[in-house]
Design a protein that fits this description.
Layout (H helix, E strand, L loop, with lengths): L3 H4 L13 E8 L3 H12 L4 E4 L8 H4 L3 E2 L7 H8 L1 H22 L7 E8 L4 H13 L5 E3 L11 E9 L2 H8 L5 E2 L4 E5 L2 E4 L3 E9 L12 H4 E12 L7 E4 L6 E5 L2 E10 L6 H12 L4 E13 L5 E4 L7 E5 L5 H16 L19 H15 L13 E4 L4 E4 L5 E3 L4 E3 L9
Helix pairs in contact: 2-10, 4-5, 4-6, 5-10
Length: 432
């Protein structure tokens, strides 16, 4: 299944790396985070190269709803309560800086960039919205409360951030990637220190940046405890509604709305990878009820890495890896997350100070409620009876009838019906 972005654009092709090579910075992973990192490193005249196991931006980047916003659900109340006002302000400022960078770059690129207001709505709980508004005001930002929304169902209102943006991510990438040292179909099978071993070559670097969505190295950082993955489902509809904005439910299981050209992009049916969820069945039921004249143009799915505290992990892979870095756990807000991670990582490998590095430090404390949920799911699936096991850490695989795939509820690896790898952190196929 192709997303609307894949149907509406074509990315450039890049060669395979087949010769041994040395470089200052090796980036592993060719999504938007990796490509932006390579872009800014080249802008700073840093010798670098990027390798991708398949085609660039063929995963989460292709499946995004492509909203560029500093409003990430009802997050600021959580940050204020858990970390204090200064921390929440720095998180906001980091994302504002990322937004500005997009704004500057997109002025030079034909990528359907346009300003839109962003809304986080609640179906029933108005109190959550009021708490978020109070938190936003406390950290010095202005938001508005909206009573009435142009959605086909009743809500308790929404928190509105004005002057946010949306764009076409693959048109943007096609322009950004031009001239970068990118190598496709170059699969890193293992790391030996700072040397990446591929099928045909070895690449040695002074610094290694892992932007593979879910970090694939298990030895450092305990990401198998700090991350889980969440599936979400999208469809592009003809003859539906112009909602004149970007809308997302504060609940992970709610619906999202935005327009692209003459299409309504509807998202929902989400669930933890390896669990049962609504998928496209839920979306089609909603469309039948609220948009009976609509026609499906295309459908697709995406997978997001979720951190313990809803804040991305960007920086040193662990406290003991001074030349190994990662960016992951964008929690469905990968557009601003990718941009700020690219700039933060660019600073780190050059030894430059970055005012926001402490906010996103991957080695921050992990004693969060989600840690125990992740631990329980891992133990449960390790002990579950199944003839099909994930090669990542041996968890039981569950059949996903909607997508005809075998999914791991522990860490989100996915395989097709023949055992071929679809999503990491597994680093190879299953032998069914």
């Amino acid at each position: 299944m192709e997303s609307i972005w894949q149907k509406d654009s074509k990315l450039p092709s890049f060669p395979q790396q087949r010769e041994n090579k040395k470089t200052d910075v090796l980036i592993i992973g060719g999504g938007i985070a990796g490509i932006l990192t390579a872009y800014f490193l080249k802008q700073n005249h840093v010798d670098c190269m990027l390798v991708e196991k398949g085609r660039i931006c063929n995963g989460t980047t292709a499946g995004t709803t492509a909203k560029i916003t500093v409003q990430h659900g009802l997050l600021y109340h959580r940050l204020l309560r858990g970390y204090g006002a200064e921390y929440a302000q720095k998180y906001l400022q980091a994302n504002q800086h990322a937004f500005t960078c997009y704004e500057m770059l997109c002025k030079k690129i034909d990528c359907d960039y346009e300003y839109q207001d962003n809304y986080v709505y609640a179906v029933h709980d108005r109190k959550k919205l009021e708490q978020e508004l109070a938190a936003i005001e406390k950290i010095g930002y202005h938001a508005a409360f909206c009573e009435h929304l142009p959605l086909p169902f009743c809500t308790a209102g929404a928190v509105k951030f004005s002057h946010q943006a949306q764009f076409h991510p693959l048109k943007f990438i096609a322009a950004i990637a031009e001239g970068l040292p990118i190598y496709e179909n170059t699969f890193v099978k293992q790391m030996r220190g700072n040397t990446a071993i591929t099928d045909f070559a070895e690449i040695t670097a002074k610094h290694v940046i892992v932007t593979t969505h879910f970090p694939f190295l298990n030895k450092h950082g305990s990401y198998f405890l700090k991350l889980y993955q969440h599936r979400s489902y999208m469809m592009a509809l003809e003859h539906a509604q112009n909602v004149n904005g970007m809308y997302v439910d504060e609940s992970k299981t709610g619906l999202s709305f935005r327009n692209y050209k003459n299409y309504l992009l509807l998202g929902g049916g989400g669930h933890r990878t390896g669990k049962t969820g609504g998928n496209w069945t839920e979306l089609r039921h909603f469309v039948k009820q609220h948009y009976p004249q609509a026609k499906e143009h295309c459908v697709w799915a995406a997978q997001d890495c979720m951190s313990l505290d809803a804040i991305p992990y960007i920086g040193h892979y662990s406290s003991r890896t001074t030349q190994l870095y990662t960016a992951s756990g964008f929690n469905k807000w990968g557009m601003t997350g990718a941009m700020l991670s690219a700039q933060l990582l660019c600073d780190l490998v050059q030894g430059k100070k970055n005012d926001f590095s402490d906010v996103f430090n991957p080695s921050r404390g992990i004693l969060k409620p989600q840690l125990f949920v992740n631990g329980f799911e891992t133990v449960k699936n390790l002990l579950s009876f199944s003839g099909k096991r994930c090669p990542h850490l041996g968890c039981a695989l569950k059949w996903n009838p909607a997508e005809h795939s075998w999914d791991c509820a522990c860490h989100g690896s996915r395989f097709d019906q023949n055992g071929n790898l679809l999503n990491n952190p597994a680093n190879g196929d299953c032998n069914f």
